[in-house]
Design a protein that fits this description.
The protein is built from no helices and 28 strands. It has a 5-stranded antiparallel β-sheet with strand order 1-2-28-26-25, with no helix packed on it. Strands 3, 4, 5, 6 and 7 form a 5-stranded antiparallel β-sheet that branches. A 4-stranded antiparallel β-sheet has the order 8-9-10-11, with no helix packed on it. It starts with 12 loop residues before the first strand and ends in a 7-residue tail after the last strand.
C-alpha cells in the first residue's frame, strides 16, 4: 500500500452517504478516525489522497484491463509525438511498458494533463482499443503488442468518451458543418455506423459530455453547448442507442443534499457500490471554474450531492480518470482547480490520486 502524501498523512476523511454534513472552512480541520455518527446510513465512504509517480493521466485514455489500470500518453518529440503506454496495479506506482505503438501525426493536445482531443481508449471483446482521429485504430490483447485494425481517420471529432453498450462501442462524434449531434457505434474498428443524427432532439449539441452505460440504458450526461456558450446538466438515455429521451431529475425533498445536478462538462461518471457517481468537471463556459462536487444516485433521477458543504473534501478536478479497481473508486490525475486558499491543499494536481472506498457498517447512536 502506498504511503500517504506526508502533508496530509493525518487527514482521513470519513463521511456518511445521506448523512449530516459537517461544515468548516477547509479540509485541514478534519482529523481523526472512523467513529459512531448520528443519523448515518449503514454504509459510509472513506476518501484519502495519495500521490502518483506519473502525470498526464486523463479519463478518455485510461481503462481497467486484465488486472491493471492502463493509460496512453502522447508525448512530443521534436515536431512529432509518440505514444507511451503505462500500467499500474494500484493507481499510484506506474510502469512504462514497451510497446510497438507508432509515432503519431497528432501534435495537438499532447501536453501532459490536458484533455485528450484525439485519442480514445475502450475495452471491448477482451482487448484494449485505441481510436485516434489521425492515425486510425489499433488494439491489443496484452497492452504492449498492438495490431493496426484500420489506418483510416474517423473524419470527425470525438465529443465524448467511448462507452461499451449492447455489445457495441458507442461514441458521440461530430462529422459535419454545421456541428452535428450524431451517435455512432462500431464493432470491428473499421466501420462507424450512424445510430442517430439527433440525440438531443431540438436542443443544441454539446461538447465534453459523458457517455455512460448503466444497467439497461446508455446515458449522456452534461456537456458544453457552444451555440449559447453555456454548460448543461441534462441527462439523456437510450435503450438501443437510436431513440433518446430526456431523463427528469427528481430531488428527494426529505434530504437537504438532494438536488438537480450542476451544469458541468469534462466530468467523469462511474458506477460503484450499486450507485452512479459524477465527479469533478468544469462549470464555467470559460473553462476556468472547476468543481469538487461529487453526486451519487441509485436510479439516475434522484441525485445526492456530497462536497462537504463548502469543505474541500476533494480538490476540484476535470478530465481526470475515474475507475473502479480492487473494490475502490479511484480518481486519478486530470486538471485541478483549488478554491481553498490554504497552500497545503495545492499539490501538483496532475499527480493526485483519490481513493474512495466503502467502509464497514457504522453503529448508529
Amino acid at each position: 500500500m502506498p504511503v500517504l502524501n506526508p502533508e496530509i498523512m493525518k487527514l482521513k476523511l470519513i463521511f456518511c452517504l445521506l448523512g449530516p454534513i459537517v461544515t468548516s472552512s477547509c479540509i485541514k480541520d478534519y482529523l481523526g478516525n472512523p467513529k459512531n455518527c448520528h443519523n448515518c446510513p449503514e454504509v459510509g465512504l472513506s476518501i484519502e489522497m495519495y500521490t502518483a509517480d506519473l502525470e498526464g493521466i486523463v479519463g478518455s485514455r485510461t481503462v481497467v484491463f486484465d488486472g491493471a489500470i492502463w493509460t496512453i500518453i502522447p508525448v512530443l518529440s521534436g515536431t512529432t509525438s509518440h505514444y507511451e503506454v503505462w500500467s499500474s496495479t494500484d493507481g499510484f506506482d506506474w510502469a512504462n511498458r514497451e510497446s510497438n505503438l507508432p509515432t503519431t501525426s497528432s501534435t495537438d493536445a499532447i501536453v501532459r494533463g490536458q484533455f485528450a482531443v484525439y485519442e480514445r481508449l475502450a475495452v471491448y471483446e477482451k482487448k484494449i482499443w485505441l481510436f485516434t482521429e489521425f492515425d486510425g485504430v489499433l488494439n491489443t490483447a496484452d497492452g504492449m503488442t498492438w495490431n493496426r485494425v484500420s489506418s483510416s481517420p474517423i473524419e470527425g471529432s470525438f465529443l465524448s468518451n467511448i462507452a461499451v453498450f449492447d455489445n457495441k462501442m458507442f461514441a458521440y462524434i461530430d462529422k459535419g458543418t454545421p456541428l452535428t449531434k450524431n451517435i455512432y457505434s462500431i464493432t470491428d474498428g473499421i466501420t462507424w455506423n450512424l445510430e442517430t443524427e439527433d440525440i438531443f432532439g431540438e436542443r443544441l449539441h454539446r461538447w465534453g459530455g459523458n457517455l455512460f452505460a448503466y444497467e439497461a440504458y446508455l446515458y449522456f450526461i452534461g456537456g458544453f453547448v457552444p451555440e449559447i456558450f453555456q454548460t448543461t446538466n441534462e441527462i439523456w438515455r437510450s435503450a438501443n442507442g437510436i431513440d433518446w429521451e430526456l431523463v427528469p431529475q427528481s430531488p428527494d425533498t426529505e434530504r437537504e443534499n438532494s438536488e438537480v445536478i450542476e451544469t458541468v462538462f469534462f466530468h467523469q461518471v462511474t458506477s460503484y457500490d450499486n450507485k452512479v457517481f459524477i465527479t469533478g468537471g468544469l462549470r464555467s463556459e470559460l473553462g476556468d471554474t472547476g468543481t469538487n462536487v461529487m453526486y451519487y444516485s441509485e436510479d439516475m433521477t434522484t441525485w445526492y450531492r456530497y462536497d462537504g458543504s463548502g469543505n474541500e473534501i476533494l480538490l476540484s478536478m476535470s478530465e481526470h480518470a475515474a475507475v473502479v479497481f480492487e473494490e475502490q473508486l479511484l480518481l486519478i490525475g486530470g486538471n485541478s482547480y483549488n478554491i481553498c486558499d490554504d497552500p497545503l491543499f495545492d499539490p501538483p494536481s496532475k499527480h493526485s490520486v483519490w481513493t474512495i472506498e466503502k467502509l464497514p457498517q457504522f453503529q448508529k447512536t
